[in-house]
Every structure is written in C-alpha cells, then in structure tokens.
Amino acid sequence: MTNQTKKNRLVMIDNGHGAETRGKCSPDGSHREWKWTREIARRLADELRERGLDTQLLVTEDADVPLAERCRRANQAAAGKDAVLISIHNNAAGDGSRWLEASGWCAFVSGNASAASRRLAGLLTEESLRCGLGGNRARPPSGYWTANLAICRDTVCPAVLTENMFQDNLKDVEFLASEEGKEAIVALHVDAILKYFNI
Q: Comparing C-alpha atoms, which of 134, 122, 120, 144 is closest to residue 193?
C-alpha cells in the first residue's frame, strides 16, 4: 500500500443524539447514550489514527446535530476520498422506563446500501460475534439489519449504524460502563475497519 493510497482513506465517526435528546438512557439514568457514544467515538478515532488512518468526528458538539447537517458534513468530507462512515448508538427494546431482557450488539445498513456498506456491516458483525457480543436475539442470514436510516441512506460513502448493546438491559449497561466493555466495543470497530481496508 502506498502512502498516497493511505492518505486518500477517511473514516468518519458519527455519534448519535445529543445531551438534550429526550430518553436515550438506562431506566435508572446511570447510562446516557449521548455521553457514552461520544467517549467511544473519541477512543475509536484515537485508535484508528494510531493505525495511520485519517479519522474525523462528525459531531464535536454535545448538542444534538440534525441528521441533515450530519449527512451534509459527511458528504462534504467524503468528496474525493475512499471514505466510510460508522454511526455509533446504543439499542433499546422499550421506552426506557424499565429493564428488559433483549441483549447484544447489531449493525444496520439502509435499504439502498451499496455492496461496500454491506461488506463493512458483515465485517463488523463478524467481529462482534468473535467478541461474544451476539446477544439473545435472532439475526437475519446476512448478519445485519436493513432499515430506512437517514445517516446511512443519505450519505455518499459506505455507511453502517452500529447498535452497541441495549441500554435497557442491566447486564449490557454494566458491560458498557466497564473498561473491558469499552475496550471490546472499540476493538471490534477497529478490527472490522482495518479488514475492510485490507490493512
């Protein structure tokens, strides 16, 4: 791989939701999605930069940035680059008022997803399963889900949204809060992205 090839690559990391977004937390309020995703996004960016990949945080604000603006930022940054986008979230099975049983990690692409988006989603899912984070829910044969998500649908580069465990499952929340859990989530993203770029 030439230095020019490496320089042309870009990983964009989106962390969904902002400090003022209603809900998006564990039933006891100990876990806040906006805060956790921003920490993971920063850690992931640092790890990828250490591996020599140009990496950009789409949202540096604590406030919620509208989807249209996030897509605009991504499309502007991706122009002329071999770029990918990962949008980091936490899942929920209910309205956040009580603990539930659904657990585990999963990935989503849009209905108009490119083959590259689907390949990246598959690699991310493989890494999550290798880490033992499959959870207790059935998954489609592809290993990832398809949904009409603007951050994946309206961006010009391969894009995957990851749902990193359930914020209304007590064991998942304990895992997400632990250093072991944070390291595992970051590592699965790093490893999948490196494999995607054949590094």
A: 120
Nearest to 108 by CA among 11, 8, 14: 14
pTM of the model: 0.95
Report residue 50 as tokens: 């250490």
* Strand, helix or coil for residue 161: strand
- Report residue 21 CA to chain centroid gap: 18
Q: Residues 107, 124: contact at Cβ < 8 Å?
A: yes
| Separation in Å, CA 106 to CA 72, 77, 103 | 25, 26, 10
20 C-beta neighbours (distance < 10 Å), count: 9
**pLDDT tens for each residue of 161-192:** 999 999 999 999 999 999 999 999 999 999 99
Give the burial string for 112-149 (b: 16+ CB within 10 Å, else e).
Answer: ebeeebbbbbbbbbebbbeeebbbeeebeeebbbbeeb
Handedness of CA 101, 149, 28, 177 (dihedral sign): positive
